Amino acid sequence: MGAIRPLDEALSGIADGCMLAVPREVSGVAMAATRALIRRGVKKLHVVALPTSSLQADLLIGAGCIETLETSAVSMGEFGPAPRFTAAMLAGTLHMKDATCPAIYASMEASVKGLPFMPLRGLIGSDLMAHRPEWKTIDNPYGDNDPIVLLPAIRPDVALFHAPMADKAGNVWIGRTRDLATLAHASARTIVTVEKIHDGDLLADPILAAGTLPGFYVEAVAVAENGAWPLPLPDHYPADGAHLSDYVKRAATAEGFARYLDEYVHARRAA
Amino acid sequence: MRGARPEPCKIEELLAGIIAGLIGDARHVAVGNASPIPATAALLARERGDGRPYVSLLQSRKHNFFTDGGCELFDCAGQGRIDVFFLSGGQIGGQGDINLVSIGDHDKPSVRFPGSFGSGYLYYVVPKVILFRLEHSRRTLVPKVDFVSAPGTSPDNVYRTGGPVALVTNRCVFSFDKAKNRFRLDSVHPGHTIEEVRDETGFDFDMPADVGETPAPDAETLRIMRERVAPELAEVYPQFAAKVFGIPVAVPA
Predict the structure, then answer these.
(1) What are the pLDDT digits (tens) for B3-48?
(2) Which domains does chain B possess?
(3) To the nearest whole angstrom, how far is the Cα of B80 from the nearest Cα of chain A?
(4) What is the DSSP string of A188-240?
(5) Which CATH code for domain A3-101+155-266?
(6) Which residues in chain A have Cβ-Cβ distances shorter than 8 Å to B115?
């Protein structure tokens, strides 16, 4: 369990057509790994973003890697709409399973607990329900005329994210970014990129251990320095705003996006 | 000082001042994605309240006390531990429905927005939801939205402890009358008129006989916003903090 491997080898566990779970834009997105997957030509992914996505989903959509996207929003934040997501939605080429943030957390928590479903408040009367026949409304069996929605568990094949460090046993330090633990606990397998390898045992120090995802859950770890770039790795480096701003302009057209891929994805081995 | 002659301020500052007032007495205010003006308002309220309310900027490290991820946030909301939240919409309907998804057919839309974010839950369970929309026009404020990300009100038997209390735009402030299920014009911003608000609003709304002018923030409020709040905003909204408050954008090392 938890072997340190070269990036491309670590990503070999992400097969075409698999359900891939990823974190939101400020929780440690494995961008170097995402570029490597695009270079490899991964296809037909069912991506579940907990609970939203930005550049990662936009790149994968533009590069033709995603068949189904399940998330609550795709946006470039202060830089505006996500251009390839928007274009794909307008063209009708992306199967989008629109959700609301806590619905994705709840569905993953069901998987974390090994349960078939989880109830959630809200949702009733939303058109989100109209497009999700698998979301069912029941009458609360402990209440009196109290409708409540049930969401089926989401059990991803693989979770992929970027974290500050791992040790040689594959224990991964995630700190307070607990969404990463939710992703790992909910998914069948977990692949992680890290800034660096910690020299020692992360579980031996009680302070570090509290923020550590045990290697038990982790199939593979690859070192990818600056691996969230141009997205941030909170507490380590900020987003590269100039790059993101430039991306949004270039990706406004399919041609501009193709040139972006040539320059930043295909031209570099592990940028 | 309160009541001092207002000095010139930007629309963002005017709206943040108004929203800070609408927050009122709260224990915990949370601010989601793409909400720089509500974030300004929440931090302003905290500065003026000497540390109260707790403010959670969900995109922030520094202004975010959660240590158990998104699960903790939504658990908190479900328990009623978040008093105030902010939502917007590509369209906002006259009955408080919001649309963050699309215009036209959902599967082949003519316009696509980013998505519903937390609205399909938080609109129901946060007692005070303040709506904001900087483009006040007939295409954004509509009689009926094309896609309901979250409805303004729910039938009596649906569990609902929260919902809209106000809608703040670049032209005016509406309050939401839950009993009548419609908006009511509260005040019009300096430089704008009631006629203009009527012309530019796609839905019907109530209008009392005396609609006043939205009060501009006083000098002390502006000083707190510019000197103490603006530098804190730059972590999460660097472009906004640069544009509105002139805070330099940090360059990654």
Answers:
(1) 455 578 999 999 999 999 999 999 999 999 889 999 999 999 999 9
(2) 11-245 (3.40.1080.10)
(3) 12
(4) SEEEEEEEEEESS-TTTSHHHHHTEE-GGG-SEEEE-TTTTTTS-BTTTB---
(5) 3.40.1080.10
(6) 52, 71-75, 98-99
